[in-house]
Every structure is written in C-alpha cells, then in structure tokens.
Write a structure and sequence with these properties.
Blueprint lengths: L31 E8 L3 E3 L4 E15 L2 E16 L3 E8 L3 E6 L3 E7 L6 E6 L15 E5 L5 H35 L5
Antiparallel strand pairs: 1-3, 2-3, 3-4, 4-5, 4-6, 7-8, 8-9
Amino acid sequence: MTGWNTLGKTANGAASASRRELAPRHRMIAAIAVPFRTNLPSDWRSGKEVVFTERQVHGILKLTGDDLVLEIRVTEAITKLSGSAGYVTDKTASDVTELAVPLDRVAALRLKKWWWGPRLTIVTDSLRFFEDVPGSKQGRLDLRIARRDLAMAEKLVTEAQIRLADLSLRRVEGSLEDDIRRLGDSPDR
C-alpha cells in the first residue's frame, strides 16, 4: 500500500497521474488509542511509623493526525504502618494531563515484547516534551502495555511509521518544488 486511500479519477474514469488529487490515508483512519502504565520508584521512610509510598502513571497513548497524544494521570498510594494501629492506606490521583508530541519531533518509537509484558518506548528530539511526565528521562518515556493491548500497540507503531514516512515525503516534495521555483526564477535562464 502506498499510504493513499483513493485514486483520483479523470472525467472518463481513468486513474489520474497527479498525486495532488490523492487524499492522505491517515485522514480517513480514526484515532488509535493504547492504554499504558508506568511504575515509579517507591519510597520507604521509618521512624515511629513506617511509611511506604507507591506511585504509578496511568494513561492512554493516541495517534491523532500528525501527533502522538498522551493523556496521563498519576496515582499515589501512601501506606502508614504503626505498631498499635496496624496500617492505613491513603490513595490520591492527579488531574488528567494531556500532552501532544508532533510526529516529526519523535526520534524513535519502539515496541519490544518482554517476558514481563510489552514495552513501548518513545524518544523525542527535545527534553521539553516529557519534562512534566514522571518517570521520563532525557526525552525518553518507557510505557508498559498490557498483553491484551499488544495488537493495538503494534497497529499504533505501524501507523505512526507510515505517517512519519508521509511527513518526510511531503517535506521532500515541498523542498523540490522550492528548488524548481528557484531555478525557474534564476537570471541564468
């Protein structure tokens, strides 16, 4: 498949040779969404009581248009252990945060299948995209995907690679048109 969903037709029904009449394939596909989670380092404190803090990032990774969109919620469970009272757990959750990363700023998008479940890694060309996401390091975010969502994750990665190729092609076509226009305007002709 070439990345285009329909062929342009001329008045007599023959296929048109012009690519300008073709519609990009990704405009016809609904958003692909994959649930994920990431465990963050746990904290232990002791004194009169032992306090254990466990944090997780839960969210959805979507491919919409030419963007990877992450919807993220951080949950925190604080368990306090004391000698006479037993233990008490308080759970809190942050508001949902939405983060959009343009596909042309994604340096790598990899899906690996591990024994303990699939991992999807997103690497960007800037630290700023993931600076507010807990667990991200150096523009890299590792997401745990449930095995039941592996097929959707594979579909998302494949579709993202197709869209990246389409973006690269549009960029090259634009620069070629600029070169042709510049050559046509040169005084040497």
